[in-house]
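Structural prep section.
Before we set up the soaks we want a predicted structure of the protein with iron/sulfur cluster in place, mainly to decide which crystallisation condition to try first. Input record follows.
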Amino acid sequence: MRTVSWFSCGAASAVATKLALSEGEPITIAYCHIEEEHSDNARFLKDCEKWFGQEIVILQNDFYKGSIYNVFDKNYMRTPSGSPCTRSLKKQVREKFELPTDRQVFGYTVEELHRVDRFIDANAQVDVWPILIERGLTKEDCLGILANAGIDLPMQYKLGFRNNNCLGCVKGGQGYWNKTREVHPEVFKRMADFEKEKGYTVLKNADSSPLYLHDLDPKAGHYPSEMAVECGIFCELAEQDIEAGK
Ligand code: SF4
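Run finished without errors. Recording the tokens verbatim:
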């Protein structure tokens, strides 16, 4: 039996991994690499490896060379039932690595208790160790624990993003994309040009017609009040529900 901790280059998964290691059991630490994440994630991962005293196994979907653009080249970017990038670059990679007997550590915090409960109800076969919830830890607590450990947060947090997703995440709203235009103009341009080339878009107008990033009003949206974008096991679960018509 293995215990696998899913490290995501986020603060919570780093603290969950450290706590699991502190229990004295051997832990396999795994990370699904995506090309479009911030380059500072490589620094954060190395800092965490030192903190853990152990290497992290880096996984990737080689068919798509770990890139969301290679996924979008062959699929749409967003469908009513979710994003093909999450499925191809995270879910499939995780499933390929998983063993049915694995115990799995996910970095979910007490704010996410109801979602963990729901996940466990729907996936009785998956042995989940919700270690942050057992310890009553919040996202803020995890940020504090990393700061106390002297580990600099990943750059995306410092730039004011609320998660450490890909730069230019296709699940972001208008405010998110305007923030991306301001902070990472090259990322905005790449996606805007890609949309024009392919003829499909990340954003939609209120009447569901396509809204090309090139046409996005720079004042549209308000990033702080938009829903936080998730790209992990819970959004996979939500997508499964949508596909099943639940
Ligand atoms: S973070 Fe966004 S763009 Fe990246 S894989 Fe997840 S949903 Fe796709």
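Observations: The pocket of iron/sulfur cluster is lined by residues 34, 68, 83, 85-86, 89, 165-166, 169-171, 231 (CB under 6 Å).
Flagged for discussion at group meeting.
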